[in-house]
Amino acid sequence: MNARNLLVLLTIVIIFILSLLTILPIDKGVLFGRGVLLGLDLQGGIRLVYQADLSSVEAGREDEIIDGVVAVIANRINPLGVTEPVISKQGDDRIVVELPGIDITDAQKERIGRTALLEFRELVIEDGEEKWIPATGTIDGEEKVLNSSYFTENTYVTRDDFGKVELIFEWDEEGSQLSEQITTRLLGQPLGIFEGDESLKGEDGQPIAPIIQAIISNIGSITGLSVNEATELSKQLNAGRLPVPLEVIYEENVSPALGADFIELSAKAGIIGIVLILLFMILYYRVPGLVASLALVFYGVVVLAIFKLVSVTLTLAGIGGFVLSIGMAVDANVLIFERMKEELQAGRTLGAAVKAGFGRAWTAIRDSNITTFIVCIILIWVGSQIVAGAPVQGFGLTLLIGVAVSMFTAIIVTRTLLRLFVGSNLAKKTSLFSPYLGKKDV
């Protein structure tokens, strides 16, 4: 073995060992301490896609507004106890929220995307009918509506002396001025509290509209809410206010139990498929088949290590892309071995056959993989643009990584291992390096 081939072999062994230490144990590798990220279809959980209404946003500020929405949603999700939520932008006006491993109530889903803007309204009579209109005050000659955007982010829930639940809030400087003006004007009258166009309702289901008993200039309270409702609303107000309305346009739920079943079935299918491939390669292609099997083991370990390092989220579709890339890696080896067979049948030595086989198969392998790369990039892009595109994106990404590594294993690893036999006594038995064609007739 020449020095160059020995150096390449040593590099391959080092890469294999480092990759093995990265993926084992699966839940937290020895190196980097990262686990495998599982998609919702494998782990269970919920996936929500929100669409933001940017119609009232000043032109050129769309990206800034969406970034703000993502930050607020992240703050709202933290209290739910989700360990690894995924919140990302999709297209120009969509936000994807993935909450793995948990079930949340409809109320919690709705709260994640609620604007969290409480508006205070006063009761007037117009045309003989009672009507709630925004309560306003004047600051520097400008009329402003009193709402929760003037709250400081330190609301909390407590109980009064009679055990009633109270949501305590504090006004900022402008809010204090507005509150003082409005509560002075409306002493002895009700002050309604609305969220959007809906009145905020108490534990009894009735609209909350307390009678103003005193002038409020700095600290106020909302009573009548249940403990859970007051707590959720307090968290939401403290997490910040969404700058634009959101609408849920897609929702996907997978129970954790179903996700666990998918993992078990995927593992069984993958193991059976890989074992059958390895057996076929060894029985049909003999020594080259054994070499290709070792290269495939190297391939699998390296790809899984890359999945961990770049935080690829594995889904059923992603596992499908990974398994398909294994098939493509085998296909590359088949092309090489068939070219080697032709060279050996022409009377070439093993060394010459290996060199010629790889040289003649390279262009076909290169061209087929380049076309696959193009398709993968298109799939990743399409998946990032459509609402239910996570499986498409996952398939494209895992296939792209798998095919890239498979090219390396087929061209570099397999060739390096085959060169170990060149010049050995085993190389003289060329039949061991050609496909099995059955027993010859005597």
CATH topology of the largest domain: Multidrug efflux transporter AcrB transmembrane fold
Strands, count: 15
Order of helices and strands: HEHEHEEHEEEEEEHEEEHEHHEHHH
The unreliable regions are: none
Q: Main sheet? A: 4 strands, antiparallel
What does this molecule look like?
- The protein has 442 residues and is an alpha+beta fold.
- The longest helix has 36 residues.
- Strand 9 and strand 10 form a beta hairpin.
- Strands 3-4-2-14 form a 4-stranded antiparallel sheet.
- The chain has 3 domains: 216 residues, Multidrug efflux transporter AcrB transmembrane fold (Up-down Bundle), CATH 1.20.1640.10; 70 residues, 2-Layer Sandwich (Alpha-Beta Plaits), CATH 3.30.70.3400; 124 residues, Gyrase A, domain 2, CATH 3.30.1360.
- The protein is elongated.
- The protein starts with a helix and ends in a 23-residue tail after the last helix.
- The protein contains 11 helices and 15 strands.
How do you describe this structure in short?
The protein is of the alpha+beta class and 442 residues long. It has 3 domains: 216 residues, Multidrug efflux transporter AcrB transmembrane fold, CATH 1.20.1640.10; 70 residues, 2-Layer Sandwich (Alpha-Beta Plaits), CATH 3.30.70; 124 residues, Gyrase A, domain 2, CATH 3.30.1360. It contains 11 helices and 15 strands.
